Amino acid sequence: MSSCCSPEGRAPGHAEHSSATNQVFSLSVPAKTGNSSSTDSFHAQQANIPAGTFAMGDPFDEGYPADGETPVHQVSVSDFEIDVTAVSNAAFAAFIAATGYRTESEIYGTSAVFHLAVQADQADILGTAAGTPWWLNVRGASWAHPAGPLSHWQDIPEHPVTQVSHTDALAYCAWAGRVLPTEAQWEYAARGGLVQSRYPWGNELHGTGADGETLHRCNIWQGTFPTENTCDDGFLTTAPVASFEANGYGLLQTSGNVWEWCADWFLPKYYKSCLAAGTVEDPAGPTIGRGRVMRGGSYLCHDSYCNRYRLAARSSNSPESASGNLGFRTVAAQH
Fold first, then answer.
1. pTM over 0.85
2. What is the residue extent of each domain of the chain?
3. Given a cut of 90, is residue 293 above it in pLDDT?
4. What is the structure's pLDDT at 262?
5. Phi, psi of 5 (to 5 degrees)
6. Which residues have a Cβ under 8 Å from the Cβ of 234 and sit 6 or more positions away?
7. What integer pLDDT is reported at residue 20 of this predicted model?
8. CATH T-level assignment (fold) for domain 85-266+284-332
């Protein structure tokens, strides 16, 4: 995995919350009860995704071989309901207030922050991730303080929640009566009905405005990575969840802004087994893997280092990992 995505996480098993399943969290995190209109007001709007069959994977052969974006294979998905946006800080704060849940970053006491985004005293910057000096280990960084102790979620309530592990995302889902999307659901919804396009809007990264100016369609790195971000798209780090244009299904920001956790385990060769099986129906991913799937890319993606803001791009990290460019969206649980 290219470490602009998200630095590899802490050793599993050291946290209070293990890398469990939705079923475990249904026991340890109370679900919403009674009149939930006040908390539902914070949660993302929903898009109804019709059932269909699509070609999953990279038809342009532009991905990293280790990511396993090929071969392209046919996948059928049942209809489902998915968040229009990534889960926001305000929505996650409602979950914390209702449950008292402590995220893994809060338990560990540190998390990864991009070097140009850090808001912390020098004493709280504890070092860099191995081989990636742009990722700093910051004491006190968490979902509530995503850039370090001197930052606060209340300053950016409509931005996507970050510094959450896969484990934390499952806990939120258990409370909200939701689940994480499978990788197939995520890509199908992210494509918005387009067939084998690079991006949610087509094959060209930028558009052209009425006056001939460059039209930015997503929040990715502009400039020279990792030292200079010109912020031509308007953002150094995260953008509000409702930024940029929606895709054909009404989803926002399925390219760039923050990586999004999916339910599946990650195996680079998984698509080969899918192709051999013919059209795969509602795949849930491999039964084991080296980490959990992440999709969508982030504000750190740049062609010079990481082009994973394409629709077919995939990456992964260990379930306890968290960073300042990693969030999630949810789907309605199937009954």
1. yes
2. 85-266+284-332
3. yes
4. 99
5. -65, -60
6. 216, 219
7. 39
8. paralog of FGE (formylglycine-generating enzyme) (3.90.1580)
